[in-house]
Amino acid sequence: MAARAWVTAVVALFGIWIAMSFLAQLTGFFIGLQDYLYDSASENGLLIPDSWRQISDKINGYFESVWSWVPVVVFGSIIIYILIESMRRRPEEVYFD
Fold first, then answer.
1. What average pLDDT does the chain have?
2. What's the half-sphere exposure (Cβ side, CA atoms, 13 Å) at 9?
3. What is the maximum span of the chain, computed from C-alpha positions, in angstroms?
4. How far apart are CA 71 and CA 66, in angstroms?
5. Do the Cβ atoms of 74 and 16 come closer than 8 Å?
């Protein structure tokens, strides 16, 4: 029973790794695009209001704080899953003792 929990956890970690790699690339792309737009706008004389920059910096701060807690939540939930699944007993262990 515990081996199945470990295999499921490893497969889940692999899936989470693929999903997080995609989300990290997507987030980095949009942050880079935003920086490029701000830099090119200032070089070409276009003015982007400071309130927009402050709002986008606040959103980027939220993203960074969420990204810093994701590994803790993921590994904590995987550990809890393995512990709970390892403590479960099969029906034949309970009813046929």
1. 84
2. 19
3. 81
4. 10
5. yes
pLDDT band at 94 (very low <50, low <70, confident <90, very high): low
- CA-to-CA distance for 75 and 78, rounded, in angstroms? 5
Q: Which residue has the tokens 């880079």?
A: 32
Helix, strand, coil percentages in the chain from 3-state DSSP, rounded to 5 = 90, 0, 10
Q: What is the pLDDT of residues 53-73, one digit of tens each?
A: 888 888 888 888 888 898 899
| pTM of the predicted model as reported, rounded to 2 decimal places | 0.68
3-state secondary structure of 1: coil
**Residue showing tokens 């512990």:** 83
Distance, first Cα to last Cα, the chain: 17
Cβ burial 21-43 (10 Å sphere, 16+ → b, else e): eeeeeeeeeeeeebeeeeeeeee
| pLDDT, tens digit (0-9, with 9 covering 90-100), for 18-33 | 999 998 898 889 888 8
